[in-house]
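Data deposition worksheet. Section B asks for the primary sequence of the deposited chain exactly as it was used as input, without tags or linkers unless they were present during the calculation. Section C holds the resulting structure in token form. Section D is free text for depositor observations; keep each observation to a single sentence. Incomplete worksheets are returned to the depositor.
Section A, Depositor: J.P.
Section B:
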Amino acid sequence: MTSDAPTTPDEPGTGAGTDRDGDRGISRKTLLRAAVAAGAAVPLLATGGIALARDAARSTPDRSLPPTPFCDDGDDPTPDQMEGPYFKPNSPLRTDLVTPGTAGTRLTVSGYVFGRNCVPLPGVLLDFWQADNAGAYDMAGYTFRGHQFTDAAGAFTLRTIVPGLYPGRTRHIHVKAQAPGEPVLTTQLYFPGEPRNSTDTLFDPALLMNVRAVGGGKEGTFDFVLNVDGGPGPDPTDPPTEPPGGTWAAGRSYSAGDRVTYGGGTYRCLQAHTSMTGWEPPHVPALWRQES
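Section C:
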């Protein structure tokens, strides 16, 4: 791990969502998130607003969870934000970033990934990275870094800690999200009620998580909406009927720099991962780069 907290904040960039409300419209959810950021008391709502349907169900013990996640067709795609200076490729495949003895308040973040037409997206690549409890990023190894894929219902769960603060920024978690064969969304998730939300120039209330205290830790929820259409199409878990020839194969462990052939092309691995059907090299530019 780095021994000192970063001394400079992430630099503002054109991908930040702080000045884009005029372009995408200010939705009811955005306004409610802004109220939460300011510390206002906003009730959990079962329909629309900042809260997710499963949050309202959890607050009422005698109610069962809904069989499907709630989604509002009026939700805008999740805004993008800058990558910042601390991203590293080749993060390990894992959903739990906490190890025995890890300092900090335990945090579980869960949610769903939807397409813009409100269809949950399975097999979405989510790559998370964040600062440790002291506000430092591990640039030598992969502490508090990991990637995962949404399940068949489009759901994900991340176990980590509440990140520490460092100069110039409020608390945040970085993430890259990519549906099969689609562009990569790079963004950040924020915490409600943080004093620095009002002074961080990158902060966007549309990226606030719902966060509640649970025992000695915290639980956060956030649903991503990617700017893609979900719906009928190849299931990432269904094997193709006539797989193209080549050396790439599902179920193998690939390292950065490995080269494979697939469908007549040659590809170089950009990030270590275990391959899976539906994530063939042409479909995942975040993992493979075509060379010929």
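Section D:
Confidence is low (pLDDT under 50) at residues 1-9, 11-51, 53-68, 232-242.
The longest helix spans residues 28-37.
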